[in-house]
Amino acid sequence: MLLSLNFINTDINEKIAYDHKERFDPRLSYLNSIDKLEAYIDSKESDGHISPNTVDYVVTISEAIKNRFYHGFSHFSLNENWIAALSERVIGYGLASKVRPDDIMKHPYAACSQQAMVMMAILKRKNISYRSVGFPHHFALEVLVNDKWYYFDPNMEPNMKNEDRLESNWKCCADNLKKFYDTTRFKDLDWKFGKNLMVTTGKVNDTPAGNAKLFQSATGFFSRILWCFPLLLVLYRSRRTAMANLKKLWLFLTKNQKQYNWNQAYKANSLT
Predict the structure, then answer these.
(1) Which end of the chain is more exposed for a tag (fewer CB within 10 A), N or C?
(2) Are the CB atoms for 54 and 126 separated by under 8 Å?
(3) Could you tell me if 107 and 151 lie in one domain?
(4) Domain of 166?
């Protein structure tokens, strides 16, 4: 049974359907790796003659990710990591939500933190500094351009001009960002962003979800080999049974051999 789980290509956790309100372009589904996404972004920047180390350069990266995904957590299916998939189904806590950018790229949908992680992976390749921006129930990022921090949120797609993104303009206050979001789509901004709260920023160029990566690496490994342990136990028990039977056979044969030798000796003595 454990082995069969590695062949079931099913996501047993919640999947959200596309609501046709986001800027999702299904034609970009061929961009199923960070390498391909980077090449696509490079072509867009080349076609638009966009200079590196500019805010427009980062906007192009963000726009590509907006068009590549719609909102929804991308999870491990059973055949990818059945331990993580079942753990999230039973316990929750996002245990099956993918955190490696290349794994996320296999899906048409990704949550706020996942889209931010994909963008961070591209920024890291371009040697552009970034840091996470945390809210009570949302996750975005800031990007450093010409020694100034600019806010980006590829998942919820705020309508912002470049100067609106400047941290010095929104002053790290979550309430100052809400006006840039579509309230017809997001009626729970107070829940996502909180009220009268200052955002929390992460370390510069930090790789998020380190513990999740360790958990998913370990469970992915054990998902592949765990079926071996019951088999080894069966073989071990079978070997013990076989050895016990061999021992009984050996005792039976040696006993009969002794009996035979005694009978032969008795017959020889009788003849004399």
Answers:
(1) C
(2) no
(3) yes
(4) 4-225
Q: Are the beta carbons of 81 and 98 closer than 8 angstroms?
A: no
160 and 272 in a common domain: no
Same domain, 214 and 252: no
Residues 165, 78 share a domain = yes
CB atoms < 10 A from the CB of 104, how many? 24
Residues pairing with 145 in the sheet = 148
- Over its length of 272 residues, how does the chain's per-residue pLDDT go in tens digits? 667 887 788 888 888 899 999 999 999 999 999 999 999 999 999 999 999 989 999 999 999 999 999 999 999 999 999 999 999 999 988 999 999 999 999 999 999 999 999 999 999 999 999 999 999 999 999 999 999 999 999 999 999 999 999 999 999 999 999 999 999 999 999 999 999 999 999 999 999 999 999 999 999 999 988 877 665 666 677 776 666 666 776 676 676 555 555 555 555 555 55
- Whether residue 118 contacts residue 141, with contact meaning beta carbons closer than 8 Å, is answered with no
Name which of 131, 109, 133 is nearest 25 in CA terms. 109
Q: CB under 8 Å to 130, separation ≥6 — which residues?
A: 119, 120, 123, 124, 141, 142, 143, 144, 204, 205
Sign of CA dihedral 87, 93, 95, 96: positive
Closest by CA position to 154, among listed 73, 48, 55, 61: 61
Q: What is the tally of structural domains in the chain?
A: 2
